[in-house]
Fold NAD(P)H-dependent oxidoreductase.
Amino acid sequence: MSTFLENQNWRYATKKFDATKKISKADLDFLKESIRMSASSYGLQLYKVIIVENTDVRAKLQAAAWGQSQIVEASHLIVFANYTKVDDEDINEYIDNASETRGIPAESLSGYGDFMKGSLKHKSVEEINIWNQKQTYLALGNLLNAAAELKIDATPMEGFVPAQFNEILGLDKLNLNASVIATIGYRHEEDATQHHKKVRKSNENLFITL
């Protein structure tokens, strides 16, 4: 029987991490692959994922995240950064990747490529930014679910100043924007939040069947 729901009941937004416990390379590789395999619109994956281990950098980022301790105490800090612009080269890169991966001529995918290019040209810069930010949340969801499977704690966080993160990490120069972050590691035994009952809406209040 699937342990998915059991894992979802186990996980919570960890408030205090045990700074002495680090995620193994094998487990980190599993989490990275879970992010890589995430669904995304058109399959384009128009974002980068920055894994921050450097303690000095994380100390600077903590100041840009309202001083939240998870930023420096967790084993790793994950920053999901969306592309701030999209051009034909991004589409061509995807087509070339698909061609190589599937062993088919790139020319056979040209129609799909033209369709994507045409669709994106109708979006404003703001619409592109919002659209790409949404894609990072899909990847974040994969991370949270995969971490729960490994019994690794993860805290999704929107409580930070993107502009400051962008400056500290040099994301502006790469046409990237920090859209959402997550801290991953292992809960501290003193984190009282782990003992709180999970609060969710009832089925009756959440679902509408038509």
The chain has a mean pLDDT of 97.
